[in-house]
Each structure stands twice: as structure tokens, then as C-alpha cells.
What does this fold into?
Amino acid sequence: MTRQLLLEVASDQAAAFAPLSQITGEELTLVERKRFDGVHELVEVLVPLALGTLPFITKVLVELIKARQHVRILYDGIEIGGVTEETAERILANLLSKR
Amino acid sequence: MTARQKLDEYLRASRRVQDPKPALIAHYEALFEPLRLGIQGYNLQPPELVVTFSPQRRCETIQIGGDAFLIYDEYLGQTMNYLNRVLFNAKNGDAVQAYAMKYIAENLRIRQRPLNASMFALAYGKMRNSAKLGTTTSARERGGMTTLQEVFVIAHEVAHLLYAGSKAFRVDGSDRAQSILLELEENRHRTDTADKLRERYGMTFPEAELIEVEDERIKIVRAHGTRHIEEIACDHWSFRNCLDFADVVLRMPREQSFRAILVTLRHLRALRYFDGLLHFYLTGDGTGFAQSRLAQLREYALRKAMRFTYVYEEDGSSSDWNAIDAEISDLLDRYDNLVEFPLLFDLMDKVKKLRCDELVEPSDEIRASELEVLVDKLTGWAGDGQ
It folds into this structure.
């Protein structure tokens, strides 16, 4: 089964990932969470990381980073750091190759 | 994918999880059962309880599609149990500082900082040797206390669902919270506050300072009214459920239940301090501790509710309440000295020093994964997580 990448973004930015469902044929999984401390304006989007989805995910990520939007990336329980406009593609491809 | 499959994928992506033992899942199901009935009492659909074990140690509710899941992290319970041990058995702040090192190591590990994590893990290994805790409290008494604290955390989370989903709950809960906050406003600047503090601590606090503290508190309430009201309302519902659980299941004496519940808020604040230290180490930003004021307000509101329950609902005498309240103050002072002050002052300075020579992570992946193995060994993650 394809491993999922979890992207935490502002609720109003999640729609940018919607076209992914056309590539995967699966409805996009949105996870809304409310932490114990009561703060919640963020949403997490679960996106399948595969060869077919990589270009689209990278494109949206780079756009979000350029627009200085909040993005937190989790994969396999690890928070992925150092993702910039320049490194996004390489880092995601690296994660994909490590599966 | 079904909702359950989506949840499993979410857990796998979001947390470094270990599978909890089946017996533990049954234990938490039993804690959750009375709360499930409470939710149904408001004609709402209870969320599915999911038990995890991860370094984040969080209790949270998530929604996937139309399905709600309440995720309880068993590592939170273990951490509260450890902090209870610190509270009862430690003689100084060494033990909590050692534990903070372990927490920071585990959480740097999941942020791709294995070299920095290993430095904290080594510090943990060294510090824990000089911070051995005795066993003056019986494990059974502490076990009951930890269980009640877990119920408090889970019930508080459930209460947020009720607050969002039920108008009746919201109206009732906010009325009660409003009246407590109103009382706080009305009682401020009372001259006997200084007298009480002098009696308790044997020292005089300048009145102007006390007024300043009170005014600050009121300002915070006004600025964040709605959110504070929700938190206080949720604490209250959780508190009532805990009392029932303490009576029926744990058969815990009232005053012990009061203490256990109040200490829960301190534990949650200590966890925020751990996160604040981690954040400070990573970013140099030391403002992650500001939430402690909300915690003070919640503590104030809970103590009011406890007094009300004891004196008005259960016909206890005011003088008995005063004795219980004094014991609560003693225990919370102990918590300050053994847990919170060592984290806020002493450890903050140590982390500041470590931050100055922050280590550059290796770019070599093999070296990085060797360090990860080392961190897991030193923090006990590779064993049973303790």
C-alpha cells in the first residue's frame, strides 16, 4: 500500500490538494483535529506519496512555501525539516525512494 | 479506504507509534465507558476510542470524514505516573530535569535531529543516575491517582466535543464558568488576600504587587473570554465525572481525589514546559511558556468548584474544607519546588547553554541512523518505552 504523507496546513489552504483525487481515484483524506489545549485552525491532509503524485504534491508545496503559508510535513511519524522551494522535490523524492 | 484504514494511515504518518498491549486497551475502554454514556445523554454520537503510545503524549479528538476518534496516548499516562512519583518521592528538582532531557531527546529524534537528540539522551542517562527516586508512596495509591488523572484528561477532551455539539451543554457550562469569573472580578483587591498569604508563607507581599497580579489575571480573562470559558466549562464536567469514577471505581477518599485532579492541571502544564524548552532549543524563542496563566485560572476555577461541592453539596463543614484546602496548597507548593521551578529556571539556563553550541547534524544517512539507534537505546524507546 502506498505510504501517506501528512501535510499540516491552514484550513483554507487544504483545497489546493483537492485535484490529487483525480490522480489517485480516491477521495482526499482531511483530518481535523482539536488539541487538548483548545487551539485549532489547522487541518491535516493525508496524501499518498507515489511516483504519480510526486510532481503535483511538490508543485503545491512550493506554492505554499512561496506564499509563506504554514506547512508542516510528517512522514512515518517523523517531522520532515529543511523543506524549501529549492529542496522540496529532492526531499520528497528521497522519502519515496526509502520506502 | 474505510474510515478505520484512513485512521491507521493517519496514525502511522503522524506519530512514531508502538502498539499498546491489549490489556491496556481494555483498561482504557473501561475508563471510557461511563463517559460514552455521558455523551449519549446529550444525544450525541460517541467517538471511537483509540489508544496509542508515542513520544508526543497527547490526548486529542480528530475527525476524518464524518467519523470522530478520540486518541489517547498511553505514554501520557506513564508520564503523569512518573511526575506523581517525582511529586511524592523526590527531594529536589534533579529527577524532573532528567526526565525533561529524555522528553527533549525523544522529540528531537522525531524531528530529524539525531545528533542533538543523542546529546540530550546522554545527559538524561547521566542525570537519571543521580536522581533515583525512592518509593515512599505505595504504588497502589499512586496507581489510583494516575488513573483518575487519565480519566480527567480523557473526560476533558470529551467535554470539548459536547461543548461543540450540544447547545444545552454550552449554555450550562458557560453560565457556570461565567459565574466563577465574575466572582474573581468581584473579589479582587480584597484586603484579606495579603493577610492570608502572610499567614501561609510568613512573609509580607506588597499590596500593590498583589493588585497588579490580580489585575493582570482579569485582563487575560477579558482578552480571551470565550476560550477560557470553554476550558473552565470542560474542566468542570470532567471534574464531576472524575468524582463519580473516584467514588464508584477507585473508592478514593474525597480529599485525595481533589488533590489528584488539581495535580493533573500541573502535569499538563509541566508537559507544556517540556515543549517550551524543546521549542526554545530549536528556535531560540522562549515565549512558549505564556499559557501558564490560563492554567492558573483553570486551577482557581476548579478549587472554587471543589469547595462548592464539598461544603454545599456534600454538607462538609467550612473548617474541614479549610484543612483540605491547606493540604492542597502544600501539595501544589511542593509541585512548584520539585517540578515547575526546576524546569522554568534552572533547566532553562542549562538548555540556553546547550543551544549556544548546537551541533550540526550529519549529512550522512548511515551515521544519522546509527545515532537514531543510540537515542532509542538511551531513552528506553527500544525497550518498553520507559
Summary: Residues 35-40 of chain A have pLDDT under 50 and may be disordered. Chain A touches chain B through 26 residues (CB under 8 Å).
